[in-house]
């Protein structure tokens, strides 16, 4: 029962997180300036709404779990997800749905196989091609092809593959596996962003630390604020509140100023946002390391390093620094 529930959580979370944001982006016209600006605003307030939900989860739901029972916390989450389904379906008649055109994995595999066949298998038959070029029939076919290319020059310019990743360009020359220039360029785009995905894999370590080790750190520290004892599981409130404050400021102040300064439509490009986020994540991990050194030093000085029953005489607010930088970097 436990593992079945965990697998269902993974399946449901993967389906929602992987499709909800793209579905929202498809509701805006990417061919118009206003559509692209509205799409940027949508993403900012999409994060804002997620943070608002997380704020309720790490405060009200955590309090229910600690004081009433975990079953009630899971029950509230179940009811909330159930209520979200009719809300989502209520707008189904007005949604702009992108018609599926097949699996992208099939296109990627087709282009890679076609390019490999041309580069490896058909490379050895280049001598036959050289002999063929001298024949009259081939020269006639070349002239015919040149005439066709000159009559549709504009179309050919649009369908000409780019010079990046040129080893894949031979895929469109394969007669066995037919590949279009558009499919070739789509595969190139995917391959170009793989290094970015590779660089951001380590960010999962940061996210895993915030929801696990940082909570364990706070559980050993003094979690009192005056007469109020804060549950360690409520620590994510720091990045949540900061993102909720940052999202409107970013959309209404930072972006308009950046557009005037950079003279560009986006103001701050996606790559710049990713770069800033990675830098802030590095700072968050460095701060986390410093806080852990301080926590263990205080525990050693207080002879509490091996005693988990007593809280270490250091406030849990030290954890807030790494949460702040990590939350900003995640946004």
Key words describing this protein structure:
mainly alpha, two-stranded parallel sheet, two-stranded antiparallel sheet, 3% strand, Major facilitator superfamily (MFS) profile domain-containing protein, transmembrane, transmembrane transporter activity, membrane
In short:
It contains 13 helices and 4 strands. The radius of gyration is 28 Å and the shape is globular.
Can you describe this structure?
The protein is mostly helical. It has three domains: 11-93, no CATH class; 103-122 and 161-179, no CATH class; 191-330, no CATH class. It is 70% helix and 3% strand. The chain has helices spanning 2-25, 33-67, 70-89, 104-121, 126-133, 136-151, 153-158, 181-200, 203-211, 213-219, 237-262, 270-301, 319-330, and strands at 221-222, 224-225, 228-229, 312-315. Helix 2 packs antiparallel against helix 3 (70-89), helix 2 (33-67) packs antiparallel against helix 11 and helix 11 (237-262) crosses helix 13 (319-330). The radius of gyration is 28 Å and the shape is globular. The two termini are 35 Å apart. Residues 126-139 and 151-158 have low confidence and may be disordered. Residues 134-155 are annotated as: Disordered. InterPro entries: MFS_trans_sf, POT_fam. One of its GO terms (cellular component) is membrane. This is Major facilitator superfamily (MFS) profile domain-containing protein.
């Amino acid at each position: 029962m436990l593992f079945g529930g965990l697998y269902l959580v993974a399946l449901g979370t993967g389906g929602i997180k992987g499709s909800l944001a793209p579905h929202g982006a498809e509701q805006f016209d990417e061919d118009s300036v206003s559509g692209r600006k509205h799409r940027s605003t949508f993403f900012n307030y999409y994060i804002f709404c997620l943070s608002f939900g997380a704020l309720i989860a790490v405060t009200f739901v955590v309090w229910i779990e600690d004081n009433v029972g975990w079953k009630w916390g899971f029950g509230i989450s179940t009811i909330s997800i159930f209520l979200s389904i009719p809300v989502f379906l209520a707008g189904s008649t007005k949604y702009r749905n992108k018609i599926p055109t097949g699996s992208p994995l099939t296109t990627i595999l087709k282009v890679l196989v076609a390019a490999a066949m041309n580069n490896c298998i058909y490379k050895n038959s280049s001598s036959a091609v050289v002999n063929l070029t001298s024949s009259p029939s081939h020269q006639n076919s070349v002239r015919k092809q040149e005439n066709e290319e000159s009559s549709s020059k504009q179309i050919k310019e649009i369908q000409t593959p780019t010079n990046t990743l040129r080893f894949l360009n031979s895929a469109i020359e394969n007669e066995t596996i037919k590949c279009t220039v558009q499919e070739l360029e789509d595969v190139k785009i995917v391959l170009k962003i793989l290094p970015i995905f590779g660089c951001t894999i380590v960010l999962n370590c940061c996210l895993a630390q915030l929801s696990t080790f940082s909570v364990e750190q706070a559980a050993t520290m003094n979690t009192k604020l005056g007469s109020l004892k804060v549950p360690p599981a409520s620590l994510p409130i720091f990045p949540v509140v900061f993102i909720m404050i940052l999202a409107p400021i970013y959309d209404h102040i930072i972006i308009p100023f950046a557009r005037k300064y950079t003279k560009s439509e986006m103001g701050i490009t996606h790559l710049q946002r990713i770069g800033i986020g990675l830098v802030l994540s590095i700072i968050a991990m460095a701060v986390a390391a410093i806080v852990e050194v301080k926590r263990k030093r205080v525990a050693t000085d207080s002879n509490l390093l091996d005693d988990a029953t007593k809280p270490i005489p250091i406030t849990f607010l030290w954890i807030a620094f790494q949460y702040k930088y990590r939350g900003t970097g995640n946004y």
